[in-house]
Every structure is written in C-alpha cells, then in structure tokens.
Amino acid sequence: MTKLAVVGAGVGGLSAAIYLQAAGYQVDLFEKNSYIGGKMGRIDTGKYRFDVGPTIVMMPEIYRQVFSDSGVNPDDYFQMSRLNPFMDVYLAGKKDRPLSSDLVDITKTYEGVSSQDMAGFLAYLSDIYQRYDLAKDHFIARSFRSPWDFWNPKTLIQAFRLKTFSSSYQSLKKYLESEDLVKLLAFQTLYIGISPFNGPSIYNIIPMIELLYGVWYIQGGMYSYAQALERRFKELGGQIHLNTAIESVTFTNKNADGVMIGGVKHDYDAVVMNADFPYAMNHLIPDKAGVKPRRYQVEKINQMDYAISCMVIYLGLDRQYEHLNVHNLRMAEDFFKNIDELEKGILPDDPSFYAYYPSKIDDSMAPNGHSSLYVLAPVPNLKDFDDWNEQQTKDFIQKVFSRLASELDLPDLLEHIDYQQIYTPNDFKSEFNSAYGATFGLKPTLLQSNYFRPHNKYPYAQKLYFAGASAHPGAGVPIVLTSGELAAKEVMRDLPLPAGKSRSLSE
Ligand SMILES: Cc1cc2nc3c(=O)[nH]c(=O)nc-3n(C[C@H](O)[C@H](O)[C@H](O)COP(=O)(O)OP(=O)(O)OC[C@H]3O[C@@H](n4cnc5c(N)ncnc54)[C@H](O)[C@@H]3O)c2cc1C
C-alpha cells in the first residue's frame, strides 16, 4: 500500500487528501490544531457562530467538483444558494448601491451614470472573459513541473495574450469614465491581498466571476463546507490526526520519505505540504537535507512579497439589523490613500472594511432575536507593520466601530455587543503558521504568479508536493481547492498505483 502524509487540514490539504484517497492511496492527514479547515474554521461560542476566514463563495462548480470527482453527488454533502444583490456598497460616507449580477440591474446602474460607461462595462466584460478563458486552461488549472512547461513558444504566446502588464485599476480606467464605477470593479483584488493600483490586470477576472457565475452562500456558513470535505475524506478511508504538529519532513538522498512527530520519524512514500509555503521552507524543510537552493533559504524567503493581511472583529449581538445585507462593503473616502497605506505598513486612519452578516439568512449562526456580525478590515502584514499593542488595536477598532455606527447606520451597536473576539495578523500567524500573518499568503505579483509561484511538485527534491494559498495557482478557496487537486495529480504522475489498486477518478 502506498502511504502518503498530508501536512495541514486547510482547504488545500483536504482537497489533495480526498483526490489521493479516492485514487487508491492510503492517506494520513496531520493537523496541528484541534479542528480541520484551517482558515476555513469556525468560532462556536455555543450561542453564536462565526466563520473565521472565508465568507464569499465564488465559482460554485469548483466547490462541487471535488465531490463529483470522488464519485458522489455534492448535493448530498452541502447546500448552496445564490445571493443577489450580492453586496451592498457604502461610498463617500453613505449607502451607495447594491451590487447585482442581474443584467437588468447592472444596466440600470451603469446607464444611470452614462451610456458610455455602460458600453465600457460591456467591453471590459468581453475582454476579461477572453483572458479568463485563456488563463484557466493555460495557467490556472494546470501545474508547472519543468521549465519547459512554461518556457515554450506556445505558453509564452498565451502569456503575452493575457495582456497582464498594466494594473487592475489602469486597465479598468480604459473602459470606464466614472471613478465610482471603477472602484466597484477594482476593490476585488483585495480578496487575494493585492492592491488594484499595482496588482496585475488579470485579477480583473475576480469581479467578472462574481457577475457571471454569481456569489453564493453555503448553509451553516463556510465551516459546513470544511466539514463536508472531512466527511468525504473519512468515508473514503482516510485518517485525520488532529493536534499533531509536524516538526519536519525527512529526506533520504533528496527523496521525501517521512515526517517527524514528537521526535519520532514516521515513514511515508511521499509528503504533500499544505502548511504555508514560506513557513514550511523556513521551519519544516531542514537545511541539512540539501534540497533548498539559495532562493529558498531563510533570507530569500523573508524577502519575498507578502500579501496584505486583515484584522477581523467577530461580534455576537443581542439584536438584529434588518437593513444590513449578508455582504456589505465600506470604502475609505480616499481609497487610493487607504490602499497605499496598507502597502507601506501604515495602519489606515480611515479604514475600508467589509461586514458579513450571515444570520440574516441563516438561523444556525445566532439564536432567535440575536445576530452575528463579522467585520474584516484590510491591514498591513506583519513584515510591514507588527506593532499590534493593546492601545493600537483598540484605537483601530474604535475607528471601525465609529464608521459602522455612522455610515452603516448602526448607532446603537456598542450597546448590543454580547460577545466579541478579535483576530489580528498575529493570530493568523500563530493559529495557522501563516508567514508574516499574511492571510492570503505570498502576494500574487507577476513575479510570484503562475510558473513563478512555488510549484505543486517541489523541483529540488523528489516526493514532495505543495498545495495551498502560497503555492500555485494561489489564494481564495476555489483556487486553493484547485491547488490540492493539482498537487494530488502530480503525486499520481510520480507514484502510479499498481493495476488493480487504483480507483478511477473523473478527469
Ligand atoms: C479573514 C479571511 C477572509 C477570507 N475571505 C475569503 C473569501 O471570502 N473567499 C475566499 O474564497 N477566500 C477567502 N479567504 C482566503 C482563503 O480562506 C484561503 O486562501 C484558504 O482558506 C487557504 O487555505 P490553505 O489550505 O492554503 O491554508 P490554511 O487554511 O492556512 O491551512 C493550512 C493548515 O496547515 C496547518 N499547519 C500549519 N503548520 C502545520 C504543521 N507544522 N503541522 C500540521 N499542520 C500544520 C494549519 O494549522 C492549517 O490548518 C480569506 C482568508 C482569510 C484569512
């Protein structure tokens, strides 16, 4: 029996583990925490429930695919419903307009500004859809193993056709005159922790995906999805070991052949690493194994670019607010300055934030008459700002609370807080071993994307694979699910199962 270790039960680890177990390998999944899901965790107070990290469900087919590929009907594991309008936006201190993926609503919004902007919007959609179509087959849903997988004329031509050299913001400005409309399509790069003002324009696919494939809600919150993945893995015969931190990966002649737990070596035929790539390189892959080239030694790893992080406030409230949508976004008065500060390591004076209110449509998130509110403010990662002392944290939260009160029309919010919990980048670092508390991992700059992002098959040793937000193809739940699938398929290429041992997987 070919035995595999998967390190980390985040979305990437769970996805890889299901693909591998379904294919016929025996998989042990190790997680340092007492729960599965990683950042897709849940705070459960017994009264209130909160999703710890991800909340916005996009690309629903990818959520379903890991189940259908492993031979079951996803509808038997989790329930999704579409949200529309999918987000309320607050601009310039007041409620602006709801974002809708209905063409009639969109036309009203854009024509309401000008017919040129409507025409510009349609041109943007057509252009970005073609680039998305190229990117998904040539760069997202495939892994890069050897330099020739990228440095060949066909792929280079496709890379050129992606036209990704301008920033998201510059690219949108070519289509739209209205600054407000540009902002409504630009802020989404923050979903992967990069500024729209210098992030590659290919990330304008994110608002397109919201509009063309919808924004969805998973009943019970995101953690129900992590539980569904766990259930599927166990049904297939996989083993989960919670509260089990891996101390290092072991190597013999540059072949990964086990993991160290409590000072004892456990033998495996291969290792799939879901712990954050930079953390894993610095802490779990020993220097003495001779498998780290200069570019992956501590100093260089620390010099890599890390994504913008976030602070999240989780509030259990003893009342409900009818006027809030499930997803609500408040943009700073000077959005450019706000984003610039995040990248320069300054805690914004006028923070943008996103408020998630799932109990509006899901009774399992709070008791009758109560509600649960999650407020996420983008903040610098710990490499750029690490002074989260008590006063600093308090002052920043105060800035968020005062804007929630005045702009989101929650004047009595403070009087109704029944439960409060805060996660700063330090918590994301300690809870999930995320390097520099960067909640979205390595920043997806051009030089840290596609072929240039850490590969799913590690190039400098055999039998070591990476799945997760800092590996290819990148951050965000559907993309990390894909990362798990790609890593699993790389394992299958290297360690084919003997005939009769493998189960067929849907390609
Ligand atoms: C606040 C926040 C909001 C977000 N919002 C969205 C959203 O709305 N939509 C969306 O699609 N995405 C969102 N994301 C991004 C998305 O959640 C992540 O990209 C994704 O969950 C990352 O999964 P992962 O498997 O790469 O990493 P992780 O979830 O970090 O999993 C890695 C796992 O490895 C474990 N581990 C680490 N070291 C060890 C060790 N030594 N031994 C054993 N286990 C170890 C960790 O404990 C963890 O469980 C959000 C993220 C955050 C933090």
Automatic annotation (TrEMBL):
Highest taxon listed in the record's lineage: Bacteria
Gene Ontology MF term list: oxidoreductase activity
Keyword tags: Carotenoid biosynthesis, Oxidoreductase
Domain Amine oxidase: 12-492
Pathway: Carotenoid biosynthesis
A family per Pfam: Amino_oxidase
Listed GO biological process terms: carotenoid biosynthetic process
Recorded family membership: Belongs to the carotenoid/retinoid oxidoreductase family. CrtN subfamily.
Protein name: Phytoene desaturase
